[in-house]
Structures are given as structure tokens and as C-alpha cells.
Amino acid sequence: MVVLTAKPAVRLPVNTQLNLEFNFSNPNEYKKVQINKIEEETTGVRIQTGLSFRVFLNAENVVTAVQSAKAFVDGIVSFITVVTGRGMDIPREEIAYELTPNQPEREFLQVFYDVPIKSPSRRQIDPKQLTDFIDSELKMNTPIAEHLRRAIRWYRLGAMQVDWFDQFNCFWIGLESLNPILQQQLSVKEETTITCPKCNHQWTKEKTVSGIKTFVLTKIEDGSSIYKKIHELRNSIMHSTKPLSELQQLAVIYAPKTAEVLFRAIMYLSEFEDWSSVKYPTILREFPMRGEVQGFLIGGEPDALGPDAQDPHFGLRHEIRATKLNEAGDVTSTVKTSLDTYIAKNVQFKLTEFRLYGDSEMKGEITENFHKVDKKKHDRLEKAIA
Q1: Is 165 inside any structural domain?
Q2: What is the C-alpha separation between 281 and 222, in angstroms, rounded?
Q3: Paired strand residues for 340
Q4: Mean pLDDT for the chain?
Q5: Which residues of 58-79 are buried (b: 16+ CB within 10 A; e: fewer)?
Q6: Which of 21-25, 79-83, 97-101, 196-200 has the highest mean pLDDT?
Q7: Fewest C-beta in 10 Å: which of 26, 185, 285, 380?
């Protein structure tokens, strides 16, 4: 069973306590999802602030269960958007645990978000490089500048996406916005033409991406292989010619490569002499820092693993011990984290791993220095996190 949440979201009818439940089955798999209200109190009034999705499915382990449930719920949220017109973020996983009957140990995973460390500004900018880039754009003639600015905006939008398909689509559209001026700069024509057999007049049957193709083939290292892959991926996404499971793996690999192609094309058309060798800044996306607790629930029955009909879970508390600003501008924080364990009386929890995640430029370590403190119905695990 995997619990995911979306906040804010659409709301269920105010005067009903009914929750939505859908069952999906085919010869190979079964899934059930329950959609529940998330309500919070403000000045004595409970208001709905989101939706929770409880997904029941078969999986080999909690990690694959989360992956499957997340993709599944994302599809349901897309349906909700069509029906209501309310765009929603991708639901995020909160808890996953095994429900198999008669198991001595059941896998458990919980994800924690909103770690209260202030996120410092990252990626120091070179003022001269920025000035040179802006000056170059301002000197461009109007038609070229128009295309470049559109491409730059698509590049920025792609850098903000968390979904690989959305990211790839933004980068590809950015390349398409540059296609006409790439055709001009590289002296290539549309590839698909028709000649009238009577008067020999030629015209373009359909617009092509010959500018993109020629740029990648002639200007990008290993361009032949890269162009073939990203063009096939574009067609497969746009025309739904391959299963999503296959496309997901390809998008993870080729969205970053498409981003670099777009970056090089922007530099090339901006007339930078070192456009092919200038350092490519790997895209740094805003990932919220998060933690994960993984382990095993020992004992108990599948429908009574948590206290008082709740899911088994941890409560999380933080105490920021120290913050240091280093000479290079980066920030070091030391945080003490306490985890309150909420499980049924006849259930024990065996911790196997505590993990922290941030973006690719965040560093840290966990000091394995925790202990249990008996406290009524639950234990407290304390960790010093640097």
C-alpha cells in the first residue's frame, strides 16, 4: 500500500464523508485506489487542503511499489484535471508498506519533505559572462533575436520541469523555434518538396526540421547517434508510438542531451567564438531536500500495523544547531532530527537505513548516533544530521 498526497488540489463535496474508490484489473495486475480528503484546521474551522491517494497493488518491494503507484496516480490526476480544469502538481509519495498476510517482517518506507534548512542561493554567476551574453543578444537583428529569445525561454521552462517528458518537450520545442534560422545559417532547405509534372513548379509539402538535423549532424560530437535518438523520441512522444515505460527510460537519458544541443545552438546563433567549447552548465533543478526512513515492520496484522487505525508512520521534528557561511558562499547547517515512531503495541520496527536527498550540488553526511527512548506507546529515534 502506497500513500501519496497532492496539495493543494480539487476538493470533494463538503457535506459528504464518502471517499472515492476505483478498482482496476487486467490479466496481469490489479490496482485499487482510494481518494480521500486532506483537511486542516484554521481558526477553529476545518478546510480541505488537498487529496490523499491510497494505492493497493502487487510489487516486488516498496521501491517498485512507489514507482508504479506514482505513475498510476499521476494518470488519475490528469483525468481530474480534464474533468475540473484544475491543474495539479504530480502527487508525492509519503508512505509505503507491505500488506502481505502472515509475514514475520514487512517492508516499510516513509519520505519526509520540507526539511527546515533554508535553501541558499546556488550556482554563482560570472557577471562578465552574463554581460557579454546580453550584449550579444541585443546586437542581433530582429528576426534572429525573436527566435533566440523564444528558444531561451523554452530552455528556462525545461530547466524548471521535474517530469522528464515535459522537460524533453520544452527543449525540443526550443530547438524547433531555432530551426528556421539554423536553416538560413547552415544554408539548408526543406527536405520534402514536390514538383508539378506539368509546369515543374516546386513547393514544400510539409515543414521539416532540416536546420536542427544539419546542426546536430555537423556541429555536435557524435551528432548522428544523438539526432537519431532524440528525433525518434520526439516522434514517439508526440504520436504515442511506444509504451510509456519504454519512453520513460529514453527521456531520462536524452532530455539532458537535448538540453545541451539547445544550449550549443543558442551559443552558435549568438555568434560566440567558443560556442562549441564553452562550459555547458548541467541543469540544476530545484529539488526539495527530503529524507527517507526504510526498514521492516515486525509482527502484527496487515490491517492493524499502526495505532488507532492509523498507518504506521514516523513523526519528524528538527532542531537547527548551527549555521555557517563559508568563504565560497555556500552554507553548512547542522541539524538534530528526532523521529517519533507510531506503530501498534504488538509491532516492532527495525531500521535498515536513513537517507537524505538534495540536488546534485548538495553535500552532507549523517552521523549514525541514534538511540531509543521509551515514551508511552512509541519510541523516539534521535539522529545528528550534518
Answers
A1: yes
A2: 19
A3: 315, 380
A4: 85
A5: ebeebeebbebbbebbbebbee
A6: 97-101
A7: 26
Helix (H, G, I), strand (E, B) or coil at 189: coil
259, burial (CB in 10 Å: exposed 0-12, middle 13-18, buried 19+): buried
pTM over 0.85: no
Res 226 pLDDT > 90: yes
280: in domain: no
What domain range includes position 180? 127-269
C-beta of residue 215 within 8 angstroms of C-beta of residue 182: yes
Closest residue by Cα to residue 374 from 346, 336, 341, 331? 341
275: left (phi over 0), alpha (psi -120 to 50) or beta: alpha
Q: Tell which of 214, 239, 269 closes a domain.
A: 269
Q: Kindly report, residue by residue over 331-361, the tens digit of the pLDDT.
A: 888 888 888 889 999 999 999 988 888 777 7
Q: Does residue 158 share a domain with residue 86? A: no
The C-alpha cell at 123 is 550556482
SS3 helix, strand, coil % of the chain, rounded to 5? 35, 30, 35
User: Could you tell me what percent of the chain has a pLDDT over 90?
Assistant: 47
173-205: pLDDT as tens digits: 999 999 999 999 998 876 666 677 788 777 665
Q: Which of 76, 69, 71 is nearest to 31 (CA)?
A: 69
User: Do 189 and 64 reside in the same domain of the chain?
Assistant: no
Q: How far is CA 3 from CA 25, 51, 276, 370, 378, in A?
A: 19, 10, 46, 27, 22
C-alpha cell at 87: 491543474
